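Consider the following input, taken from an annotated entry for ABC transporter ATP-binding protein (Bradyrhizobium diazoefficiens).
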Amino acid sequence: MPGVAAIETAPEPMIAMRDVCKWYGTYQVLTEISLTVRPGEKIVLCGPSGSGKSTLIRCINALEAYQRGEVVVAGTRLNDAAGSVDAVRREVGMVFQQFNLFPHMTVLENCMLAPMRSRGVPRVKAEETARRLLDRVRIGNQAEKYPAQLSGGQQQRVAIARALCMEPKVMLFDEPTSALDPEMVKEVLDTMIGLATDGMTMICVTHEMGFARQVADRVIFMADGRIVEEAEPESFFRNPQHDRTRKFLGEIL
Ligand code: ADP
Ligand code: MG
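Applying the prediction step yields:
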């Protein structure tokens, strides 16, 4: 059917934020945030401390409520139906600056817990998946250890594996290397680059601009709760359009 085959439709966006506004009391932390992320796209989100980056990505998996606008993740609109929060969180994995591993559980148990508890995955299957993903972040040989026995970089890789065990469609990273000693940053970035290469849809809040250049399809710069500028890395770094962006890049590069 040539007529049908000829019609090209853009894929549904993986994430669509439209005019999202959020206040803490009278303080407006997000102003008219609109952002569309297509399947497989990698976004780097940067901006000064306090500009609302964490709040923005936390709105995507309903860790924060917002007062205006809408967020749609993998076809599910947050807020409009009972169960929408659970439906969205099922698709979204998140990695934080602080690794947030459970200290009293082994690496393997940390990775098996959520799939067993909230997905009802049988133990044998959860362990198989966990071991496979721990191998993928090159830490399979540490599976029986406790988090405190690992370096910061290793713990963060476990946190990434743990998020992947839920088989998310989207991964959100909130300054995943900011709490690490410098010598451990690369191993975590390399893990993220691997994920990106495998086609994961990602939003990464990071000031690692080398990573942004290498991986990002788009770099988004926020200030004072607004998206000020977004561009492909090449033009973002070479030819920033706004004074705020230039000032920011001057400070971090
Ligand atoms: P970023 O991640 O860019 O550093 P955040 O999203 O953490 O910024 O914070 C944006 C602004 O919102 C900051 O001014 C911060 O102080 C404020 N803020 C964050 N969380 C809260 C909260 N729970 N209550 C009140 N204000 C908050
Ligand atoms: Mg933050």
